[in-house]
Structure formats: structure tokens, C-alpha cells
Amino acid sequence: MSINKETVKKISKLSRIASNEEFENSMIKDLNSILKFVEQLNELNTSNTEPLSSVVDQKLYQRDDVEKKINEKKDILQNSPVKNENYFVVPKIIE
Amino acid sequence: MGEITKLTLVNLVSKIKSKEISALDACSDYVNRIVKSKKLNTFVTETLEQAISSAKKIDDNNLKEGILSGAPIAVKDLFCTKNVETTASSKILKGFVPTYESTVTSKLWERGAVLLGKLNCDEFAMGSSNETSAFGNVINPYKVNDENIVPGGSSGGCSAAVAADLTVATVGTDTGGSIRQPAAFTGIVGLKPTYGRCSRWGIVAFASSLDQAGPMTKNVSDCALMLDAISGFDEKDSTSANTKKEEFLKNLNRNIKGLKIGIPKEYIVDDMPKEIQDLWDKGISWMKESGAIIKDISLPHTKYALPTYYIIAPAEASSNLARYDGVRYGFRASGKDLNEMYENTRSLGFGNEVKRRIMIGTYVLSSGYYDAYYLKAQQVRRLIKNDFDLVFKDVDAILTPTAPSSAFKIGEKKDDPISMYLNDVFTVPINLAGLPAISIPAGFDKSGLPLGLQIIGKPFDEQTVLNSAYALEEKIGFKSQVKDWWM
Question: Is there a contact between A79 and B358 if contact means CB atoms under 8 Å apart?
């Protein structure tokens, strides 16, 4: 499987990273070389192998169902680059 | 004064507790050195004035109870620190001032340590040389023929700062070798604990199933003390292990008689310099002299660890880094609509290596490729973990080199991602299997650069890892060769 310009454009769209000619050319080169490298895995037969997503084998911890004063509005909004008193501000979405 | 910064963490804390040295004198000595060491570019943010006033408070109120009482400590700029800018060495987080403290760093301050500042690293911890930082390279305190070399990465500011005596100890993070490889490159000790041993809460996330915080220190005893300080269950991290609190420093001893040490034949790789093979052989003899039993072992899927890692880590990163959207924190670029704002923000805010990994991660998770890449990598990850599970039925720990080379020149591997990735060939399998592993300085190559040996242990058996390292440390007798050329 190799990556062409169309694929790079599609992936950069999905990644929400603005793309231009220079970016696309360097990504075609780098991504193909990385994919060639990782395709070594196809040497292995894994048809009967269970995928491993986490090495942790404990049950998820459940905390007591009590109210906690964390993530208050003021804290959450503090680092926003553009905000008003109560909201994050983004470019206009609805005409 | 001036000699204080040469003391180990264990010695410094004991002298502060016995009032032989005041917390203020200790802090001032570090501050003086940091001010004269800008050339190394180890710090992204300095908090020197606050450090001095915290140290005074410790003396004035006689707060000498904590196990890190008065220890001046800078931390990797990947840990969120309340009211202190936290950037992950990325332009996209420039100006981000957390309103909360990471669990690991809050443990440091609760135990009496004093924050000196935030240390440079590869952007979002993605790199092996500290060259991907948005705030410039860190320079290794070791030099070859007057040429600057890398401190390793991603915890390169951490490794350089410990080696240059700019912090008495530090905490870094390790996703594929980011504590151990820079420790090896700078002649210090670095431990990646078992996955789940230290809380990940409040650490800027890279690859959540692999990330783990750990100590980087001058020696093995300091490492045990730091692990005592930062480990433990945290209900805020769902992958934090609910195990009983251990006392690593108290139980540290050099008796490894009868301990079975495995030597994996797959770790002999092409192009590995002879001096690294020689050092590994020496490590084996030192282990034998200490009474350990050496066993040849096989970890047959070793060569598949790097390709597995370079699917899983970018996949998790692409998901974790989706949060940098220019809306909630950090940098924001303009755009005519929401999508263009996102795209411009992320394009201008992220550096090249981060973009490369987001792109790869998005690709391997995308429809039509998920099974061929991501699922395949998770299956191979199982095989890699099975290899370790099997050998740990026969051995107690494994000895390998930490990295396949010593530190390289700045710029030497920058243009070829794969050659950079190959640096992590001996460290990545350990993250995939979630195991604890330490790197200890074990010698020098012919150009005078430090080399490290790695000891890998069973899950949650950091004590055996530390004890084996402690025994080896005595045999090695490593002495730092850092000359203060930058001052």
C-alpha cells in the first residue's frame, strides 16, 4: 500500500492540518518510508492472536458517587484564547 | 558553597534535615548554576524567585519532615504545574497556564521538594534527540572535539540538567525510551516504572497505553527515593495500579546472589558498535561477580517491536492531540470558518515531527486501513508481551544495552525519521509490554561519551531492577566526566 497525493490530502483533512504543496510532497516521502518500515509486521501470522490494547488487567476503579468541586467554569475558561464571560468563542458556524 | 550541587539527592536531603545545610543555601546554589548555564538550553520556564521563597519558608517554619525536604527540583515541561506555564515544548501550548497540578508533581511538592522550573523536551515527547522542541535544542553537557551533541530525548532537558547539576533529580516521561535513552546519553540513571506504577493524571498525553513517568537521577539510591516519592495509586487515573505502597529505598540492597539474569540474543543488532557489545559483556561479568546466574534467553519478536510501536504510538497520539483545536487553550490562528481555523491553528502550532505522527496515526486508524495496520500492531504487541511473560518464568531480570549508539551530533539524524526511530530499538519493547526498566551509566565510548546498560524487570518488580542496578553500580564505579565548559 502506498500513499499518493490524494491520500495525503484526505488524511490532512481528517487530521485538521492545513496542507500545501510542500507539506504534501514531504509527507508522501516520509509516510511511505514509515509505512514500508511497519509493513514488516506482515511477515507474522496473527490470525489467531487476540489484540492487546492495554497491559492493565484490573477492573476499572469506581469512585463514590459524590459531588466534587473540580473543573469549575472559571478554571475551564481561563486558558481559552478567545472567550466571553461564559463561553468559548469560535468563528461563526450558522449563518 | 558551590559544592552543594555535587551532592546526591539522598545526601542533600539528609543534610537539610540535620540542618547542616539550609534549604535556602541548597536552592541558591542551584539557582546560581542555572543562571550561568543558559547555553545548554535546558529550561523552558524558570521559577527561580518562587523557588527561593519556598526554600526560605521551609527553613523558617522548620518543615523538614518530607522525604524530599528542601530538594530543588526542575521537572519535564510535560507535567502540568499549577500557575506555571506548561508547553510540552510546543508552540501550540504556548501561554497555557494550568489551573491544576499533575499527581506526580504534587507528590514532589507535598514531600518538600521545591520547583526550579520546567525542562525542555522534544515536542509532545516525540523525538529521541530533543531536536523537535519548539524552543530549540538542548545541548549535552558532554562534548566531542568541541562539537555540540544531543542529550537524547525526549526527556533531553531532564537528562542534561541532571548531568550538569542544574537539578538534584528530576522526573521525565517514557513512552518508547524517553527516560532511559537520554539517561544513557548523559551518564545518569533513568527508570521507567511499570505501566500503572505512577499516575498519568495531569501529564500532557502522547500515547496513553505506553506513557509512564519516572525518575532521572545521579545514582541508583536517588532513583529509589524518587520512586518512593512519586509512585502510588491515584483514583484520577483509571490505569493507575491499586497495589500496596512499597519502600524502594529502604529495601535497596546489593545482594543479587542467585538472581537469574537473562541475556536476549535478539538484542545483538547489525551495526552496533563493538564498544557497546564489549560493555554488555562487561555487564554480564559484573553480574556474575555479584553472584547472579546468567541465562541465554530468546525474545523472538524483538525486531517487530519498533514497527509495532510506530503504529500504536502515532495512532494514540493522533487521538490524544485532537484536543488542540485553538478553542480551549494555547495558540489559535485565524480562519474564515471553524474548519479553517482548526486547520491553520494545527498547521502553524505543531512542528514537523508531531504533524508526521498525527498523519500516520490518522492513516492507520482510518476506514479501510484499521485492520491492516492498527489491529495488526495490537496483535503483534500481544506476541511481544507473550515473549516477556514466557522468559520471566525462567529469569528474574534481563540485561541489555540501553541504546545502540552513544549520543550523536546535532542534525546528524534529523532528516531521516527511520534512522532516528532506530535509537529506541532496545527500549520500545519494554513500553509495549508495560514492564519496568532502568538505564544506568556503565562506561564511555572511545570519544568519551557515556554509555548505558538497561535492566528490565517483571511487572511491579522495580525492587529487583533497582537492586540489580545498585549491585552493578558498585562494580562499575562510574564517575561523571562533565567539565563545566559552558560556564
Answer: no
